[in-house]
Amino acid sequence: MSIWQRIFSAGARLFGPPNLPDGNGLAGRLDEAGLVAALVALGAKMAKADGQVSLNEVAAFKRVFQTSPENEPTIARFFDLARQTTLGFERYAGIVAKRFRAQPAALEDVLDGLFHIALADGIVTEDELSFLERVGEIFGFSDREFRRIKIAHMGRAADDPYLILGVDEDISDADLKRAYRRMAAANHPDRMVARGVPQELLKLANHKMAMVNKAYAEITTQRKRDKGLTEKSSASS
């Protein structure tokens, strides 16, 4: 069972009285239920960030934050309540950030899901982008990391390969290769499946990896070209 399936299973009776054999189980159930509430609220408030909630955004939420039939009615009621306003989204983002503070890949999965909801109606407004930026900040992503995630979804007119890989231009060749391998591993389909990422975001992973591969190839090609020019200049002097 994936991490997301375990979470939603544990929080199945989101607001009902848990029927568990001991106090430790109860505490764990309440923790997971609170996390479910935070994830649902973040998705609902993301859909509301541009002022209105479209049917496409609701459908995108259901695809990203998969729920089982038995808890879908309860989660749907909470979603309808949470989507009335964006107020309080920072508190919910904080709950998610605390739960996954040692698992940045899981936090990026959540942010990917929020981008997917924001893009469901074909455009990301300034209000939606501000919402996403604030969530990224609460999740602990740096400006560079957030820009990398953003361009994976929205693209750029002129992609910066260093920005895509999340590294500085003066990084060594060895550290560059390590950064590339870390990113490739984090976005490997097998690892994403293990995290319970839905099919829509698995498709995105292929797009992200294509951009990562292209960025790495561009940098290494340019560095080889620059090195060759330097060696040629030194030989002629």
Structure description:
This protein has twelve helices and no strands. It is 71% helix and 0% strand. The radius of gyration is 21 Å and the shape is elongated. It has helices at 3-10, 23-48, 55-64, 72-82, 89-99, 104-118, 126-138, 143-154, 161-165, 173-186, 189-194, 199-236. The chain has 237 residues and is mainly α. It has two domains: 1-141, Orthogonal Bundle (TerB-like), CATH 1.10.3680; 160-237, DnaJ domain (Helix Hairpins, Orthogonal Bundle), CATH 1.10.287.110. Helix 6 (104-118) packs antiparallel against helix 7. The longest helix is centred in the last third of the chain and has 38 residues, at 199-236.
Reconstruct the topology from this structure.
Blueprint lengths: L2 H8 L12 H26 L6 H10 L7 H11 L6 H11 L4 H15 L7 H13 L4 H12 L6 H5 L7 H14 L2 H6 L4 H38 L1
Helix pairs in contact: 2-4, 2-5, 2-6, 3-6, 6-7, 10-12
In short:
This protein is mostly helical. It contains twelve helices and no strands.
Please supply descriptive tags for the structure shown above.
mainly alpha, TerB-like, 237 residues, Helix Hairpins
- The CATH topology label of the largest domain is TerB-like
Helix content: over 70%
User: Could you give a short account of the major beta sheet?
Assistant: none
Through-space gap between termini: 65 Å
What is the overall silhouette?
elongated
